[in-house]
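Risk register update: the risk that structure generation would not scale has been downgraded. Supporting records follow, first protein first.
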Amino acid sequence: MLVPFLIMLREGIEAALVVGIIASFLRHSGRAALMPAVWVGVLLAVAVSLFAGAGLQWMAAEFPQKQQELFEAVVGLVAVGMLTAMVFWMRKAARSIKGELQASVTKALAQTGGPAWALIGMVFLAVA
């Protein structure tokens, strides 16, 4: 139980870092009025994550014992793959993540189709 907790803690800290960089940039650039869009993205991502977790739990409970173990193994391997890719990406992008995020936010805010939707999407993907 400790290992999943530590993994979730680490991923939560990474998501908080990304959201913090975006929020800080919005405040420093005088666009603090868009902060509700950031919170909407965070809440949507948390809700989708909870529903996905509950759905996976419900699906796994319906399987017989052997298929349930196979299902858990497949989900575990997918999680390991995603976390490994994230670690390698963070290792490569750690030095420039702040600049890249600020450039992406600036580009999203320059769009005429609704910068709030772009922010919601960015934050959603960072947290989810």
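Supporting record for the second protein:
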Amino acid sequence: MTAQLLLSLSILIAVHEWGHFITARMFNIRVEKFYLFFDFLFPMANVLNFSLIKYKKGDTEYGVGWFPLGGYVKIAGMVDESMDKEQMKAPAQPWEFRSKPAWQRLIVMMGGIIVNVIVGILIFIGLTYFLGDRFILNDYVNKNGGVQALDLAQQIGIQTGDKIIKINGNEFEYFDDVAKPDVLLSHNSSYTVLRGDQEIEIPIPDNFIEQFDRKEAVANFLIPRRAPIVDEVSPGTIAEKIGLQKGDRIVGVQNQPITYHDELKAVTQNFQGDSLQLSIQRGAQLLSFTVLFKGQSSIGFYVPNEIVPAAGQKEVAYSLGQSVVLGPGRAFDVILVQLKAFRKIFTGQISFQKSLSGPIGMAKAYGGQWDWERFWRMTGLLSMVLAFMNFLPIPALDGGYVIFLLYEMISGREPSEKFFENAIKVGMALLLVLMVFVFYNDIAKLVTGG
């Protein structure tokens, strides 16, 4: 998972810095360095200055730094991460950033954000075109027993067997919508469930999204109820001893009929007797077993990974034209989710600490196995998130420079060099504190299992 994150961030950092690089070149501004990762101990520009790889072409030194938490381009005549004060003391040269009109400098500063947005959009267009969509039909789930409510769903009052018929008062087609971030982040969100013949409104707590800070959380929320069909038998278990086979279906336990796997688990996990009676459907045969079950909690088999059969799913393929329309919308949905999350953080509805993830948390989101589909989905998402975060009006981030440039364009006055330099220092200090907090938060979550 670390390798996936490192590759993803390397791609996104490189294209972000290339955005600054290419826009600077457009206006004949000299770029002295183009680095993936930092060749110093960020944000201390004069500490541990060395690179892993470097070469020079023209006026630009290209390289890979040793500190893998970002990257930068050193643009001549600009106060940046390198804090090169000596250069700024010399008279301005026509090839320098500071010599150019404010609108050109604004484009250079926006270059990285713009390229990250473009890359994110292209990735989502590609995923839409090449992979399409596969949805679980909510109507199928409701006609086949409703949902199995796992721990997170039980916390808000959903019960196994409930049928979710509305989200925020609206009917919906795809079961996948119940755990969408947009739903979990919306204010006053709710599910309408059908329990027996009664409709019940179940509010979603404003801070419920905090429970979904791990990749595994969605799998601990809601799943369609599944039949107790054997897919794989675990070695050394009761299932192996009685000879259960792939495709066998448990149809009865303790002389009581069962339809769903959760019903079987409810009996076996709470069983207090010595012997357990099982009825097994194998093709046209009905088999019966009585097994010693004292001290056991499961029979020892896995149900199929496919949550619902093909009949309960809808696969949608898109033309290139449709993908070009849908892709940007899906990319900008990431930004809308970020805005909703920030609003909830600032209003105190969700915890800043629980909402924040750093490299360790992001690496966990990629999963333990290499999966190219998940890799590109995560890369597209991160590209949009990086664009959003870089646009924040914090000195030392692109958004901070943009604020200063907009002030200059509106007022006609450029902030003093001293003020600008101090603002960059403050911004870097804030980023350093945030970086330390993020690492501490990630490690704390790892240790506590959060």
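Residues 417-448 form the longest helix (32 residues). On this basis the risk owner (M.S.) recommends closing the item.
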